[in-house]
Amino acid sequence: MKQHVFLIALLLVTLWACEKDENKLPTEPVLLSPANGSVVDLSKLEFDFSGGIDPEGAYVANNLMVSEDSMAWYEIKNHAKVFDCELEFREGQKYYWKVQSFEYDESATQVIAGRMTESKVFHFYTNAPIWIVLKG
Predict the structure, then answer these.
(1) Residues 81 and 110: beta-carbon distance below 8 Å
(2) CA atoms within 13 A on the CB side of 19
(3) Does residue 132 lie in a domain region?
(4) Other CB atoms within 10 Å distance of the CB of residue 69
(5) Host H or E run for residue 70
(6) What domain of life (predicted)?
(7) 3-class DSSP state for residue 63?
(8) CATH of the domain at 59
(9) How do residues 106-124 score in pLDDT, each as one tens digit?
(10) Which residues contact 73 (CB under 8 A, 6 or more apart)?
(11) Is 11 domain-assigned?
């Protein structure tokens, strides 16, 4: 009987030791600026965020996404400038933005399918032009 208990314990320890650790998703990106619901001057529009980080240390690319309606998103690639975006920012409009963090393989050349985390969605408004009418 003692031998059976010992063999079962040995088998359980062996199985437990052979289990592969679960690969965790990148942490959720945090949006910093423009703040949610803020009004932004187009000449000073700047996106600031803290990108996702992989708990196991794999390379993570963070892509900025911008939308006019929160349905159709325009991607601004990692390290790109906002003016490279196909979306033309206009005065007096509401825009949405989010960040997606993608985990890459060990060679840091290819995104691993399904290894993506997305931030919350924020919105902001651009200043409407101010018209001053003088009567006199």
Answers:
(1) no
(2) 8
(3) no
(4) 9
(5) none
(6) Bacteria
(7) strand
(8) 2.60.40
(9) 766 666 777 889 999 999 9
(10) 65, 66, 67, 98
(11) no
44 band by pLDDT with thresholds 50, 70 and 90: confident
pTM: 0.72
Looking up tokens 């992989």 gives 54
Rounded distance between C-alpha atoms, residue 124 and residue 122, angstroms: 7
Reading the block at residue 75, the tokens are 């991607």
With tokens 């932004």, the residue in question is 40
Within the chain, what is the greatest distance between any pair of CA atoms? 107
* Residue 7 within any structural domain of the chain: no
Q: What's the number of domains the chain is made of?
A: 1
Contacts of 97 (CB under 8 A, 6+ apart): 31, 34, 47, 64, 65, 66, 67, 121, 122, 123, 124
In a domain, 9, yes or no: no
Q: Judge whether 123 and 37 are in contact, CB under 8 Å.
A: yes
Local structure of 87: helix, strand or coil: coil
